[in-house]
Amino acid sequence: MLNKASYFLQISTGADTASAGPTEETVSFFSLITSGGTGGIIIMAMLFILAIIAVYLFFERFGAIKRANKLDPNFMNNLKDHVANGKMEAAQALCESTDTPVARLLQKGVSRIGKSMGDISASIENQGKIEVQRLERGLPYLATISGGAPMIGFLGTVIGMVLAFKEMANAGGQVDVSLLAEGIYTAMTTTVGGLFVGIMAYFGYNYLTTRVESVVYKMEVSATEFLDLLHEPL
C-alpha cells in the first residue's frame, strides 16, 4: 500500500514539473530604456522632450487655426453695406471688432479706399502674407521633429549595435547569445521611440497644414469679393 502511494506521488510530482515548463521573463519598456546605458538614456530623453514639444505645438496651433477659421456669416454682408453706403469708419470698426485673419485682411483694404486699385490689391496681398506667416508659426519646428526624431532614434540604435559588437569582440570565441540579443533589442528601442515621435509629428504637421490652407482659401475668397465690390459703381 505504501509502495502504491509512493508511485502515485512520483507521478503527480512529475506531472506538476512538466506542466510548469520554462518560465518567461517579461521586460518592461522602462527597463529597456535604462539598460541601454548612458547613451540610450540620453537618446530616449531627447525623444521624450521632442514628443512634448510636438504635442504642445500641435495643440497650440490647432487652437489658433480653429479660432482663425471662425467667421461670422454676416460679416461680409455688413462690410459690403458699410462700404456701399460710404460708411468707412463703421467698416473699420467692424473689422477691428472681429479678430480673424479675414477681418484684418479686409481692414487693410478698407484703409486704402480712395487710392488706386493696384495699391489696394497690393496692400491686401501683403497683409495676406503676414497672416499666413502667423498661421504657420511653429509648423516648421513640427516638420523638423517629424524628420529628425527617427534619425535620432536610428543614431541610438547604431550606438547600441556598436557597443553590442564590441562586447562580442571582447568575448572572443565565447559569445553569450542572450547578452548579445539583449543589447540588440535594447538598441532597437530607440528606433521604435524615434519612429513613434516622428510619425506623430508628421501626421500632426500635415493635418495643421490642411487646416491652414482652408483659412487661406477663405482669405482669398473674401479678398476677391471685396475687390469686386470696389469695382462696382458706388
UniProtKB/TrEMBL annotation:
Family: Belongs to the exbB/tolQ family.
Biological source species: Phaeocystidibacter luteus
Pfam families found in the cross-reference section: MotA_ExbB (PF01618)
Superkingdom of origin organism: Bacteria
Presence of keyword Cell membrane: yes
Protein name, entry field: MotA/TolQ/ExbB proton channel family protein
Topological category with respect to the lipid bilayer: Multi-pass membrane protein
Keyword Transport: yes
Location of this chain's protein in the cell: Cell membrane; Membrane
Record-level GO cellular component terms: plasma membrane
Location of the MotA/TolQ/ExbB proton channel domain: 99-220
Main localization category: membrane
Transmembrane intervals: 36-59, 139-164, 184-205
Keywords associated with the record: Cell membrane, Membrane, Protein transport, Transmembrane, Transmembrane helix, Transport
Annotated signal sequence range: none
